[in-house]
Amino acid sequence: MCILFVYNGANDIESDFSLILISNRDENYSRPAQCMAPWSEDPCVYGGRDLETGCEKGTWLAISSKYKKIGLLLNLPGVKKENAKSRGTVVADYVKSNLKLLDYIESIKNYTNNCNEFIFVSVELGNLPDLQLEERRPNIYEELSSIFVNIPKARYGTRAHTIVLVTKSGQVDLVELSLKSPINIENPEWERNEFQFII
């Protein structure tokens, strides 16, 4: 199972990063692939390439400097379809296209019905926040788009940050930073709690 971590720091004034994306690709060791590099047919796109027969030109992760897009494929293990189409072309075609996300999704619906199951993750840099969030909360969608939400007028925001680290031997490190109660929004105080145990 592939893993993805995304940090959106676009509205975090204390962060030097607008985006941090960390991903791993779980795949058969024998499957041929090319490491991340600029693509020969489009040097504005950087990504690995799947070299498996029938999947050539597909990718699991790519970024386009021209269209300011990132596409990522997460494999969902499960039933394999006979003669399934390549999921990797979904990412490759997305980053090479000037279509906006919703138009692109609409254009690939029939194709993806013939693919094995997957999750497609996309980022349009410079086009955040999320359109669905804007539609649902039009008055505060920008504030809600931050990884650290702080809306003093609504007395609403991020109250805790939690990290759970579990080793293969079962050692758990649990760290949480929480706002101390009662919460003073003009001068918030943070409390750190750490726990270690075996599961």
TrEMBL record:
One Pfam match: TANGO2
InterPro entries named in the record: TANGO2
Name of the protein in question: Transport and Golgi organization protein 2 isoform X2
Organism, as annotated: Vanessa tameamea
Gene: LOC113403438
